[in-house]
Amino acid sequence: MKYTTIIFDLDGTLLNTLADLAAATNHALAEHKLPQRTTDEVRQFVGNGIRKLIERAVPADTPAELQEEVFASFNKYYKQHCADSTRPYDGVPQLLQQLRTAGCCTAIVSNKADYGVQALAKQYFNGQLDAACGERAGIAKKPAPDMLLAIMQQLKAEPASTIYIGDSDTDIATASNAGVDCIGACWGFRGRAFLEAHGAKLLAETVGDIWKLIK
């Protein structure tokens, strides 16, 4: 195996979380009498953390204080509803088991709030991961390499044997900033053309392609 430490983004890579993210966004907007967003709009807003999602979802002239209230409303709702419609992409549990059987370390590094990462990782991938890290205070979020490097240090992983897998330009930049290879997940929230346009050199059309690329 060329790569023995396989680190994944979460939203749009391991889990299809879009419906629950859109529902939480629109719940928070409605609570403050702000216009609703379509699921496709939310798809474009995600990837840089919840605060950035809310900043993009509210009208451009929304005061900072109101943005904070919408942010708080989102978090309160999402903590209770983060798994209502969320499901692993086809083949993900099997891939993780295949990697574990081959002796690889597996982990998640995501800009999703850490409470969501931990809850969803436990619910869907319990026993299939060595580590999981979401956005938290005191560590810079992606595309800064800090979270990825921290997980690599925790797993005693070398850059040459580590690969990061994600579905967005943020993930491609994160891998580059950390000095590790990257696979673009074409089934995720952005798609193949977007990933190619943002410099992805390795692309997986399906979850099953990950195994072939890693070997």
UniProtKB/TrEMBL annotation:
The lineage of its organism: Bacteria, Bacillati, Bacillota, Negativicutes, Acidaminococcales. It comes from the Bacteria. This is Putative phosphoglycolate phosphatase, bacterial. GO terms for molecular function: phosphoglycolate phosphatase activity. InterPro entries: HAD-like_hydrolase_sf (IPR050155), HAD-like_sf (IPR036412), HAD-SF_hydro_IA (IPR006439), HAD_2 (IPR041492), HAD_sf (IPR023214), PGP-like_dom2 (IPR023198). One of its GO terms (biological process) is DNA repair. It holds the Pfam family HAD_2. One of its GO terms (cellular component) is cytosol.
